[in-house]
Amino acid sequence: MVDEFKGAIVMAMYGHHKTYKVSNVRFDMCPETCNFEQGEAGTTISMAAYFKQQYNMQIMEMNQPLFEIKQKRQNIYLPPEFTMLVGIPQKVRENKKTVAQMRQSLFQKPHDRIHSIQQLNKMIATSEEVKQWGLDIQLNPDTIEAKVLEKPQIFETPNF
Fold first, then answer.
1. Sorting pLDDT into bands at 50, 70 and 90, what band is 19?
2. Cβ–Cβ contacts within 10 Å for residue 11, how many?
3. Are 5 and 86 in contact (CB under 8 A)?
């Protein structure tokens, strides 16, 4: 499990939603026993109390291991419960077939992209939830008239 998260990028699901690189998973630490100094007075506060006080968030699993994040001045520790994995996991990136399939779906031609969007709309429109809510979803995207501009000509000037 440590290998799955080592080097992974996680996003904090609180505050400014910062992203962090996990350097280690600390099974010897948990929110229940992790205390740190807070503020100018240096009062000691538990991780659980800190999240409740600062973000009004209750840690549900008090015995979960913590993500260790290496910082310049000091390491910080995050409860995985309040983070979300972002990016593509290393195991997926190593599978060339999967990467090729992802590229194909990410870099579609405009006609293929519209077709994919229509398929997604159709799937959503026929879902039970949409029927229960009485929503009517338009299957085709709106069309607009637009003018394609010519590429601008860029001139380089010598550095002064």
1. very high
2. 15
3. no
